[in-house]
Structures are given as C-alpha cells and as structure tokens.
From TrEMBL:
This is NAD-dependent protein deacylase. NAD-dependent lysine deacetylase and desuccinylase that specifically removes acetyl and succinyl groups on target proteins. Modulates the activities of several proteins which are inactive in their acylated form. It is found in: Cytoplasm. The keyword Ribonucleoprotein does not apply. 2 residues (Tyr-56 and Arg-59) present in a large hydrophobic pocket are probably involved in substrate specificity. They are important for desuccinylation activity, but dispensable for deacetylation activity. The active site is at residue 109. One of its GO terms (cellular component) is cytoplasm. Its main location: cytoplasm. It comes from Notoacmeibacter ruber. Substrate binds at residues 56, 59.
Length: 238
C-alpha cells in the first residue's frame, strides 16, 4: 500500500460533463452560449446584474436535476480508502463532489449554493434564486447580493492553503480541465517543481499537457475508477 502520502486532485468542468453539466470551452459549451465578459466578470455584473443573476439562477436550478457520476464516486472512494490524505481542489461551483461523498473539497471558484453580499462581504448558504429585491441576512442591505463565485479578475479562494497543499503533495492529479484558466492552470508546475508525480486525466490533451509526467485521455467516468483501483491496490507507482 501507499503509506501516508498526500494526493491533491484538481478537478474542472470535464468531471461533471458525464452528469449532464455543460463545460465551458467544449463545442456547445457555456462560452458558446453566452459571452464570458457578460456573465463572469465584475464588470458584466455591474452592467447588468439581473442578467448575471438569472444566468446563475438557471445553473443553480439545474443542480437537483443532475447526479454525481462514476468519476465523482471514484474520488470519494479514494478519499475513504487511501491510507494517506486526499484533497480535492475543484474549479467547479456545483456540489457533485460532496454529493458523491467527498468531504475534503476546496471550491477555489466558489459555490452555486452560496451568496456573497457586496456590501458586508459576508458569504452564506443560499439555495434558492437570487434577486436584487432581496435583503442581505447579515447586514440588512437590499440589492447587494451576488452569487459567491469567482469571476475573471477576482482572487480565487484559499490560495495560500492550496499552494501549501501543492508544495507538500506526492501525487498531483488533474481531471477534466482544459488548462485555460489561471492560477489553476499552473498548479501542475507548482506541484511538479516541489517533487510531486503529476498525471492528467482528460478527454483530450489540455493546454498544459506537456507539464504532466503521465497522461490518460478519455472520459473521466471511465478512466478514473480504473486509476483509483490502481492507486488503492498499489499497482500505480508514484
Ligand atoms: C472531459 C470530459 C469527460 C469534457 N471526461 N474530461 C495571463 C496569464 C495568466 C493569468 C491571466 C492572464 N490573463 C488573465 C489572467 C487571469 C485570469 C485568466 O486565467 N484568464 C485566462 C482566460 C487567460 N484568471 C483570473 O482572473 C483568476 N483570478 C486571478 O488570476 O487572480 C489573480 C491571482 C494570481 C495568482 C495567484 C492567485 C490569484 C480568476 C479566474 C476565475 C474563473 N472563473 C470561471 C467562472 C466561475 C464561475 C462559473 O462557473 O460560472 O471559472 S471561468 C470558468 O473557467 C470557470 C471554470 O472553473 C474555469 C476553468 O474551466 P475548466 O473547468 O477547465 O472547463 P473547460 O470547459 O475549459 O474544460 C473542460 C475540459 O474537460 C476540456 O479539456 C474537455 O476536453 C474536458 N472534458 N468532457 C474528462 N467526460
């Protein structure tokens, strides 16, 4: 067995694709339906908050209609059964890792089921539609709530903790991310420079594929359960 070793798993939209959640940059993906400048920047929100609220309300409303897939369940199993530590750093704002049973999950780009008050900066659980008529339950101001997600130009969450994990992991596994968006796109370099073995599992080679020591290309829902078996039986060496 692998002993007390540390694994960091970076996940992106591709891990939720087989659950029926749209990715961003694949054909027919979210950025072919809406302009990212309109819905995923603070400037887009300032220009048309109603449009941005309804974009995220629609994505939040989809959550009860989708289920975790075998890739999410494989990572939950890895966390339960691996002798060392397994931490998921997800760029996804859905809740499919948690619903599959993963407990150690960092949502670096925020969560659909949370709201953030632009006035008092407090974040809190919010599972229903957001509107500009609503008052912040923390400070009482009306019209100040936004989805608690990280837009372009904003600082992703828990970066100090994530870099600490990357510097101390033995295996860095990236699943279902195209490598277009920073800082997540350079996590592989950070982990690799600090001695981690690095592997990518993605439908196709990501932009950063040459930074990985090992790659497996295909569907996460098919490849990840096999890879987790290899990790748990010790047949994958790192
Ligand atoms: C499958 C599959 C299957 C399909 N199985 N695989 C130049 C250099 C460096 C940085 C910058 C730069 N210019 C600008 C920046 C900064 C900017 C940035 O990265 N811009 C790029 C466009 C260049 N980044 C930021 O602004 C970030 N903040 C920041 O940098 O702060 C400063 C800082 C610096 C240093 C350290 C720390 C901080 C914030 C980025 C916020 C991104 N926000 C979004 C929206 C979040 C809310 C929402 O969901 O709406 O996050 S954008 C969107 O992209 C979303 C995703 O999390 C993110 C990544 O997308 P992802 O997950 O990779 O999805 P896709 O669709 O791109 O890829 C899916 C992949 O899955 C594909 O490869 C498929 O093949 C694959 N796939 N089916 C396996 N079944």
């Amino acid at each position: 067995m692998s002993g007390s070793r540390n694994i960091v798993v970076l996940t992106g939209a591709g891990i939720s694709a087989e659950s029926g959640v749209d990715t961003f940059r694949d054909e027919g993906g979210i950025w072919s339906q809406v302009r990212l400048e309109d819905v995923a920047t603070p400037e887009g929100f300032a220009a048309d908050p109603v449009r941005v609220q309804s974009f995220y309300n629609a994505r939040r409303a989809q959550l009860p209609l989708v289920e975790p897939n075998p890739a999410h369940f494989a990572l939950a199993r890895l966390e339960r059964e691996f002798e060392g530590s397994v931490m998921i750093v997800t760029q996804n704002i859905d809740d499919l890792h948690e619903r599959a049973g993963s407990q150690k999950v960092i949502h670096m780009h925020g969560e659909l089921k949370k709201a953030l008050c632009c006035a008092c900066k407090k974040s809190f659980p919010h599972e229903s539609d957001l509107s500009l008529e609503e008052a912040c339950p923390k400070c009482g101001q009306v019209g100040t709530l936004r989805p608690d997600v990280v837009w372009f130009g904003e600082m992703p969450y828990q970066m100090d903790r994530i870099y600490d994990l990357l510097r101390h992991c033995d295996l860095f596994l990236s699943v279902g991310t195209s490598g277009n968006v920073y800082p997540a796109a350079q996590f592989v370099q950070e982990a690799g420079q600090h001695g981690a073995h690095t592997i990518e599992i993605n439908l196709e080679p990501s932009l950063g594929v040459s930074d990985f020591e090992d790659t497996r290309h295909g569907k996460a829902g098919e490849l990840l359960p096999i890879f987790v078996d290899e990790l748990l039986t010790g047949s994958y060496h790192f």
